[in-house]
Amino acid sequence: MDPVQVLGSLAAILLLAFIAMRMFPVKAPLDDGKVTRNLQRYEPDAKISEIYLTEDCKAALIQLQAPANALGLTVQLGDRVVCRVITGQDIKRADISHGKLVIHFDDYTQPAIKLAYGTEVLPKVQDLVNTVATSGPTKDMHHAA
Amino acid sequence: MPLELAKPTELAVPAFVLFVLVEMIYGWRTGRAKFEGKDALTSLTMGLGSTVSGALTAGLFFVLSYWIWENFRIFDLGAGVWVFVLAFALDDFAYYWVHRFGHRMRWMWAAHVIHHSSQHYNLTTALRQTWTGQFTPGFLFKVPLFLLGIEPAIVFFVAALNLIYQFWIHTEAIGRMPRWFEAVMNTPSHHRVHHANNPKYLDANYAGVFIIWDRMFGSFIPEDKDEPCRYGLVRDLGTFNPLRVATHEWVGIFRDIWRARSWKHRALYLLAPPGWTPDGSRKTSDMIRAEWLARQGKITHGTEEPEAPTAPQAAE
User: Fold this and answer.
1) In this structure, are strands A47-53 and A70-77 parallel, antiparallel, or unpaired?
2) B312 contact residues in A (CB cutoff 8 A)
3) CA torsion, points B59, B62, B65, B70, in degrees to nearest 10?
4) Chain B residue closest to A16 (CA)?
5) Rounded to whole angstroms, what are the CA distances from B158 to B63, B85, B150, B155, B163?
6) Pairing, β A80-87 against β A91-97
7) Which of these, A68, A79, A93, B225, is most buried using a 10 Å CB contact count?
8) Which of A7, A9, A26, A32 to mutate to test the interface with B (most CBs of B within 10 A)?
9) What does the pLDDT read at residue B271?
């Protein structure tokens, strides 16, 4: 491989990504409607009980009526949304760090997430996560392809 | 002495950059193409990484190909223009099967999943290529061409042309091509379906250049204007990190094989379709589609109230 071509390609990559970032800024944060639509697209059988949007509106934990012993997670990644239905076996641990809820997952592409909540909501979501984390293994919602 | 031919993909790189820029400007002005900075950065980085990783093992495959061709070829087809034309058609046929297995066998999916991991569909997605294709049995699909007597340099040359053809079909900026063209060739419309994760569209339109292979082997699904394509995986990645993007399915395979309780299960974690598990606890694309069809049936037969609106939302 020609090192000049590699360096030239690298420069072009950075330039194109920079232009994309400027031309297509990420605007719309999550709201309840967007969270609901995306989670139900991901898991049509999910029944939402309550949505806990983070303060920056970039993620939401979702209390579910169905599936049982599971929790919804919706994260804004760039301008798109990534959804998960999490069971106890997906959660390695959950801690509070610097006023944020940090959940560590058994998920190679999303190993941990920091969620910023106000002081009133934080204990509620922590309880919610702990309840699911300590519940028995249920249906593994992972799917591929 | 191997035939010396130009490397079309290297020559095409400046054009790729230019066309990405043109699509960005067009999308910015019209809203008909969407980009996101980090997504584009990841896609383009995967493209560069793919070129580098391919170059590291190219010599090995070159030697192996020539060894097969020199020792086992049935005919000596030479290097006439008709051989290039034949090679292009046969290589595209081989590509169809490599690609089909790339979606239906988890071992090959582990390499190919990278190309489908963006939730965007634009020209940068075309360049989001695997770093690990050489660790799959994909090479075997080209062996019949060498055995037939087509010189490996010609096969690699036409394969590069095939790859270049596929660049322009990764766009939402083009609606449909003329009817005759849509009937024979792979187009942006056909390939949008291939990249969509809507249950209706899963595992369809594997073609590289000629869509006729899908029509012949029953894997063709036309784009439906009432079912807008949503792009990405059925379980999207939670990262833009290129290293994690490149290796995530391999990690998943190793974890599953490590935890498997029998050699049969270990083999099937590698050879069965993505999403296969011994207890059916994860979902393959067939299962996802079957569930979707069952849900559609319920709605159609009035046993379930259809949700309004019934048309799926585009990924947000």
Assistant:
1) unpaired
2) 41
3) -110
4) B21
5) 18, 9, 11, 5, 9
6) unpaired
7) A79
8) A9
9) 98
Q: Rounded to whole angstroms, how far apart are CA atoms A54 and A52? A: 6
Residues of A in Cβ contact (< 8 Å) with B240: 77-78
Q: Which domain holds residue A112?
A: 32-134
Interchain pair B237, A109: CB under 8 A: yes
The per-residue pLDDT for B297 is: 82
By a Cβ cutoff of 8 Å, what residues of chain A touch chain B? 1, 5-6, 9-10, 12-14, 16-24, 26, 28, 34, 37-38, 41, 44, 75, 77-84, 107-110, 113, 139-140, 142-145
Strand order in the sheet with A59-66: A47-53, A59-66, A70-77, A80-87
Q: pLDDT of B120-156, one tens digit each?
A: 999 999 999 999 999 999 999 999 999 999 999 999 9
- Mean pLDDT value across residues B234-239: 94
Write down the pLDDT at residue B303: 52
Closest-approach residue (CA) in chain A for B103: A145
pLDDT at residue A1 in the model: 72
Alpha-helical runs (H) found in B105-184: 106-112, 123-127, 143-148, 152-167, 179-184
* 8 A C-beta contact, residue B268 and residue B278: yes
Cβ contact B304:B298 at 8 Å: yes
Chain centre distance of CA B227: 21
Q: Which two tokens stand for residue A61?
A: 């934990």
